[in-house]
Each structure stands twice: as C-alpha cells, then as structure tokens.
Design brief:
single chain; 401 residues; alpha+beta; conserved putative lor/sdh protein from methanococcus maripaludis s2 fold; Elongation Factor Tu (Ef-tu), domain 3; Helix Hairpins; six-stranded antiparallel beta barrel; four-stranded antiparallel β-sheet; 3 helices; 18 strands; 29% helix
C-alpha cells in the first residue's frame, strides 16, 4: 500500500515539474515573440515598366489675341449720321462702316472748286493778253528796225510782254494751288464715309449713331476690327525657361473651356526683351519681380471657337519620344547630374536587386529607359515594413518568480 502511494506521489511530482517546465517554456517563448519579434520581409511599392510616349516641355501661360487687330477711326469731324455694322459682323475690305454729316466738307469742296475755276478763267484772260503783248512787241520791233518809233516805245512793249508772261506763271501756280485745295477737299469729303480697311470681324463698337466726333485733336475710334481666321497666342515664358526655347519648336496649348483638346502649331518668335522695357526709365533690375518673355504662336481658327483674351496653357515641346519604355522618375536613383543611374527591380524571389539603367528623356514625372529594363519589369518606388511587424526591441520588464 505504501509502495503504491509512493509511486503515485512520484508520478504527480514528475507531472508538476513537467507542467512547470512547459509554463516556463511558454512564458519564455511569449517574451521572445513579444519583445524580440522575428523581422518580417519588407514590402515594396512598385511600378511596372511599360511602353508609352514621353515628352519634355516648357510650361507657359498665354493669352489669345487676334492675328491682326486695328482701330478704325474718323478723320473728319461731325455727327455720325449712320452706323452700318453691328458687333460681331463679318465685313469685307471697302465695306461702308459709318457716315458722318458731310455738309461742311461738301461746302469746302464747292468753294475750292469755284476757286479753281476762277484761277483757270484768270489764266485764260492773261493768255489772251500775252498774245496781244507778243503781237505788239513784234510790231514795235519791226518799226524800230525802220527807225519809225523811238527806242523807249520798243522797250515799253518788251516790258509789257515780260510782265504778261510772269502773270501767266502766277496764274498757273494759282491753278495748281486751287487744284490741290480742291483735291484735299474731295479727300476730306471722302473721310465722311468710313470704309473697312481690311476683311475682319467687328469686335468692338466704340462710337454710336448720333454721336458727334471731333477729329481735330485725335482720331476718334468708331469700331475695332480684327482678323480672327487666325489666332495668335502670346505666351509668357519665364527667364529660367526662355534659354531652352527657339522659333520653330513644336507647341501645343489648351483652353479652359476645352482642356481635353490640344491645338498644335509651332513657335513663331520669342521677343528679345520683356514688356517692361517699354516703361523702364532706369537701367537697374528689380530682382523681386519675375521676368517673362513673350513667345508668339499662330493657329488657324476656321470654326471661330478661339476668342480674344481667352487664357491658354501653353506647352513648348523640347524633346519627345514615342513607343519607348517608361517608368516613374521617382524610381531612378542617380549620383549627381551626370553620374550612373540605377533602379531597384523586384526579382522572382520577391527581393529588390539593384540594376544600372540608361536614362533618356526625364520630365520629372516619367523617365525614358534606353537600356537596362524590359517591359513588365517591376521597379521599386518605396519600401515599407510588412503589416504586423513590430518596432525595434524594447527593454523587457523585470520578471518575478
């Protein structure tokens, strides 16, 4: 009986030791995994190398304006009797725009024409006197040769002929002056009919019918006429970018009303100086003010969708490539501006390996890869610990047994 009790006691003791050992082992494993977790493999944010188009361009803000715009003014003073055009009308060169009351100009023309007739009549009278003086001089000359008259009488006839000839020249000059005055009056009368100097669209009506205009001080504007079949975009290019652009480069722009539509053309010219040069009175440069140079580009506008003063987002294309391998620029690592470039590529084992690449166009958004990658390769953009991973080990608290 005692032997059985002893065996049972030994068995229970062994179980207690075994349970205590398991408890200590479990506690140790818990402490290890909680305070010293196994570092999990990192996860990557990747992008796939794909075939696509890429371009490098200079961005500028532009304003649309008419290819040609003129202010049609009045060169005659008076009241506008009629205005024959309306805002938005398309008119042809030579078409009547407005008429100014022409009473004064008509009277001036009649006066100058009358003065011209008077000068011509006076010339006719003096021409008759000239003929008479020539005949008289010839007679006196013949009589003098036969000693039939005195020398004084002959000289008097000669002087009369010379005076008559001078009067003829005076009359001819008066006729020329009167003719010029008549022509001027005729031109002034023509100024009362204002005609379109070119084909175009009426973009502004500055004066109205019944208004009195005074052309003595400055030519008053009646309408503004613009040629809208072609639109010019005036793009402001910053001084940091203007050194990279030149006439003839490919350009496209978009407008706010249709941002999805691109209008393609070429850069016509770049101004050699900013607009501020017109008002600058000093040679000092204000470094606090941004400097912009105007780039001009023209685009056909057959449908009339483009309008004056619209805002355009202009892109001057510096370089472009189509159907090339591209990846995000953030994936490219480069030592200096001219150093070797590399990317990290995720291999079949899920690990990132460094690979050198040759970069072509890089517009800071996407980069063209000339060598080193194939379509479908996954490049690393960034790296993060896998979900559930723990921070660096912390100092465990004291354990009491």
């Amino acid at each position: 009986m005692k032997s059985s009790t002893s065996r049972l006691s030994n068995f229970l003791n062994r179980w207690r030791y075994a349970l205590a050992a398991l408890a200590l082992l479990g506690l140790g494993l818990g402490v290890k995994f909680y305070y010293f977790p196994t570092k999990k493999a990192p996860t990557f944010v990747t992008a796939t190398a794909v075939l696509g188009d890429i371009e490098q361009s200079v961005l500028a803000t532009g304003t649309l304006q008419a290819f040609k715009q003129i202010s049609v003014g009045a060169q005659a003073s008076g009241q506008i009797k009629s205005l024959s055009v309306a805002l938005g009308d398309s008119i042809q060169k030579g078409q009547l725009i407005a008429e100014i009351d022409a009473m004064k100009q008509e009277n001036d023309l009649r006066n100058t024409q009358a003065a011209l007739l008077s000068a011509e009549a006076l010339l006719g009278s003096r021409q008759a006197l000239l003929k008479q003086a020539e005949l008289n001089f010839q007679r006196q000359k013949e009589l003098l040769s036969g000693d039939a008259i005195s020398r004084q009488t002959y000289e008097q006839a000669e002087a009369t002929l010379g005076t008559t000839r001078a009067d003829i020249k005076t009359s001819e000059a008066q006729i020329a002056q009167a003719s010029i005055a008549a022509d001027t009056a005729k031109v002034n009368l023509g100024y009362t009919r204002i005609l379109a100097p070119m084909d175009g669209v009426v973009v502004a009506l500055v004066a109205q019918q019944g208004q009195t205009v005074n052309a003595n001080q400055s030519a008053p504007i009646i309408i503004k006429l613009a040629l809208l079949d072609t639109i010019t975009v005036k793009a402001q290019i910053s001084e940091a970018d203007v050194v990279r652009v030149k006439p003839g480069q490919k350009v496209y722009f978009t407008i706010l009303g249709a941002p999805e539509k691109r209008y393609y053309t070429t850069l016509r010219s770049v101004d050699p100086a900013p607009d501020s040069i017109v008002t600058d009175t000093a040679t000092t440069v204000n470094t606090a003010t941004a400097i912009y140079y105007n780039g001009l580009l023209d685009v056909p506008n057959p449908e009339g969708l483009l309008r004056i003063s619209m805002t355009a987002q202009v892109y001057v294309v510096l370089n472009e490539a189509k159907g090339v391998i591209t990846i995000p620029s953030a994936a490219v690592q480069q030592v200096g501006r001219r150093g070797p470039a590399s990317v990290r590529v995720v291999n079949a084992a899920g690990k990132a390996e460094k690979r050198e690449v040759k970069v072509g166009i890089d517009n800071n958004v996407n980069a063209e890869i000339l060598d080193g990658l194939a379509v479908g390769d996954k490049v690393v953009l960034s790296e993060a610990q896998a979900p559930g991973s723990q921070p660096a080990p912390r100092t465990p608290p004291r354990m009491r047994f």
